[in-house]
Amino acid sequence: MPRTNAQSDALATVDARMAELSDWCATIFDFGETAWREYRSAAWYVARLRAEGFTVEEASGGMPTAFCAEWSNGNGPVIGMYAEYDAVPGNCQAAGTCRGPRNGLGYQAGGHTDPHSGLGVGALGGLLATKAAMERHAIKGGLRFTGEPAEKVRGSKPIHAAKGYYDGLAAMLSFHPFYMLPMCNTVRWDTHCGAAYAMIYRFLCDAPERWGPHDGAPIPQSHSAVRAPGANDALMTMYQSSRALREAMLPHQGGWSISEAILTAGQATADDLPAGLAELQYMIRVPTIAMAEQVTAALDRNATAAAAMTGCRWERHWVSKSRPGIANHTMANVVWEALQDVGPPEWDEAAYEIAREIQTNLGIEPMDLPFIDEITRLLAPEKAEAILRHDLPPSQHNSTSDDYTDMTWHAPTARFYIARPALRSPKAGWTYPPWVMNALGGIPATIDPMVRTAAKVLAASALHLLENAAVRDAAMEEFRVRTGGLGASEWTPPLCDYDPPIHFRWPEYVTTPRGQDWWIPATLPDA
């Protein structure tokens, strides 16, 4: 389909605002805030969106670092987009060509890996370009832009979905930087991401003196008295026993995984006292909800046993209960058409020089073409699907993990991937250290091409939907078939039956008399 005048104007708007988008991307990258603690990032988006004419609800869904922005140009269809902006603990990296944390921080601070800094600003660029074209060409309808914290623990989208923030949309556009081949410069077709459960097991040792026989000591917790092992021992027992689940319950292919993180441990002093509290988080990524429930039941059994052995009681607190995603071919075709029109990202000689400098600093002979070929190529959705399914059993309908899947149950959704910079390996089997990808996601010359392309594809896709009622109707009809029992899927209601898990000891930045610091003390490289 030929490009419309509105689409042409939107693409020109992205180009005209690229200097701003580049600065904004660098700002969010430098914030590097982690799940549920993205205070500066969320405040920045709220202020920016209000300055651009949007009405913004802060703390949407009861989440302090979430938001929902709305803008209307009159009665008509509403298109949804969103920003993510959470970073990952332990990945602090400066936007430079050598390994090094951002100024004043250590390596254990947060840093953008995917990078969500480019994801969010690319989406914002597409949103603002769509709005400008709608105003200039008097296109009726509206835009909804949600701020989605804690994606790394699949946090906000199940909550937003349960509270109705995706209801009433004509379409949802979901962009992500490419993170695995073949998902590079393409659109997901049939195999969307799967289900995920995340929870925190909390062990509490309330009465350690009641665990064993008593000798009548006047001080129940005297050094010689029998005492419960306590919460730290419960945590370690749970940790070790649950690792066996990976061997017993999950295969080594298909994108299934269990991972854990210790949030809180200790509360004991130098005295001979058992720890009173310990918390252990699990993330379960599986194709189906039934599998997630089965793994959860096994974890519950382990928690019961660990608590009984150590004189504790246990609680389970939900972080996420996320549904598997469903396809929409009509939406996928809309975005694929836009991607073909816009073309893949293009990197210039300045980006090549940065890539070569990184290679040189790693002791690698710099290459004439330092980036992998795939980032400058388009891959048709059906071809990407065939490659993705090559290693999956026919019975597996979903693979890997991302919480955009909750959106697919509330609006016709397209999920697409734009290339982020990735370096070519000097030889088979050689892998770059993780800091390289993190740095490339923060250096303007290397990440801006992705931001520009994503913004253009989002704007062109949104305007195609706004200007073409027949395509909107087809997407909605396919959505109804797939979610209403007439096709491959039955309607699955939101699984979220919990409050936002914002009160736990999530890693975060803190302000001290020394200035801003990370919650885990870290030695700077030059100390």
Please render the helix and strand layout as text.
Layout: H1 5-16, H2 18-31, H3 39-51, E1 55-58, E2 67-72, E3 78-84, H4 116-136, E4 142-148, H5 156-162, E5 171-177, E6 186-187, E7 195-204, H6 231-249, E8 257-264, E9 277-286, H7 289-310, E10 313-322, H8 329-342, H9 349-361, H10 381-389, E11 413-418, H11 434-440, H12 444-467, H13 469-483, E12 509-512, E13 515-518
Parallel strand pairs: 3-4, 3-5, 5-11
Antiparallel strand pairs: 1-2, 2-4, 6-11, 7-9, 7-10, 8-9, 12-13
Count of helices? 13
Kindly report the average pLDDT value.
92
User: What is the C-alpha radius of gyration, as a whole number of Å?
Assistant: 24 Å
Number of strands: 13
Sheet with most strands: 7 strands, mixed
Helix content: 25-40%
Order of helices and strands: HHHEEEHEHEEEHEEHEHHHEHHHEE
Description:
The chain is an alpha+beta fold and 527 residues long. Helix content is 36%, strand content 16%. The chain has 13 helices and 13 strands. It has helices at 5-16, 18-31, 39-51, 116-136, 156-162, 231-249, 289-310, 329-342, 349-361, 381-389, 434-440, 444-467, 469-483, and strands spanning 55-58, 67-72, 78-84, 142-148, 171-177, 186-187, 195-204, 257-264, 277-286, 313-322, 413-418, 509-512, 515-518. The protein has a seven-stranded mixed sheet with strand order 1-2-4-3-5-11-6. The protein has a four-stranded antiparallel sheet with strand order 8-9-7-10. Strand 3 (78-84), helix 4 (116-136) and strand 4 form a beta-alpha-beta unit. The termini are far apart.
